[in-house]
Amino acid sequence: MCIHVSVQGGDILSKGYALFSKDRSFQPYEFILHAIGEHDILIRTLYCGICHSDIHQVHSDWKKETYSIVPGHEIVGEVVQVGRAVSKFRVDDIAGVGCMVNSCRHCEYCKENQEQYCMVGRVLTPMLLP
């Protein structure tokens, strides 16, 4: 899980709990995320879910992973910053992020409500790999 601590000069100073190999336990981890873009929002994580895919990924069950990994890609939190082109959210709103963030909405899969298969504009919520 990642907690965004502060924004300084555009950089987002963050803390989370990371695994550094599949055989170790979680450790506190500090890292810097890039500044938000014009269509992005920054969410201070309040609640985070750990799902089966998080567990499989941190243990390298599906493929050899690159560590460090901060799992927990389904979150609810408070909006603390919005990009200049954002109109749906404002600072202090509560926002949630699921495992999928976006899709093209126009391809054959999207038209059939199968956005998870979108080959044009699918955006998944990644686990942070700082």
Summarize the entry for a quick read.
By secondary structure, this protein is mainly beta. Helices cover 8% and strands 38% of the residues.
What does this structure look like?
The protein has 130 residues and is mostly beta strands. It is 8% helix and 38% strand. The chain contains 2 helices and 8 strands, in the order ββββαβββαβ. It has helices spanning 52-58, 108-111; strands spanning 2-8, 11-18, 27-33, 41-49, 74-82, 94-97, 100-102, 123-124. A 3-stranded antiparallel sheet has the order 1-2-3, with no helix packed on it. The radius of gyration is 16 Å and the shape is globular.
Short descriptors:
three-stranded antiparallel beta sheet; mainly beta; 130 residues
Could you give the order of strands across the largest sheet?
A: 1-2-3
Class by SSE composition: mainly beta
What is the overall number of helices? 2
Main beta sheet strand tally, sense and closure: 3 strands, antiparallel
Q: How far do the termini sit from each other?
A: 13 Å
Mean pLDDT metric: 84
Uncertain regions: pLDDT < 50 for 5+ in a row?
none
Q: Write the element-wise H/E pattern from the N-terminal end onward.
A: EEEEHEEEHE
